[in-house]
Amino acid sequence: MHKNISLADGKALVRGIFAQFTSAKRRMA
Predict the structure, then answer these.
(1) pTM (2 decimals)?
(2) d(CA 19, CA 29)
(3) Could you name the domain of life of the organism this protein comes from (predicted)?
(4) C-alpha separations of 2 from 6, 17, 22, 25 in Å
(5) Neighbour-count burial for 1-29, b at 16+ CB within 10 Å, e otherwise
(6) pLDDT in tens, 1-29
């Protein structure tokens, strides 16, 4: 497993999910 790639992809993935979560939260609010 490539930890460096996993870390970079992990950050990007978390940012994408967090962005969708915040946008969905704004829609419900």
Answers:
(1) 0.55
(2) 15
(3) Bacteria
(4) 6, 22, 30, 33
(5) eeeeeeeeeeeeeeeeeeeeeeeeeeeee
(6) 567 778 889 999 999 999 999 999 999 87
Q: Which two tokens mark 20?
A: 């969708």
Q: Can you tell me whether residue 7 is helix, strand or coil?
A: helix
Determine the residue type at 29.
A
DSSP assignment of the chain, as one string? --HHHHHHHHHHHHHHHHHHHHHHHHHH-
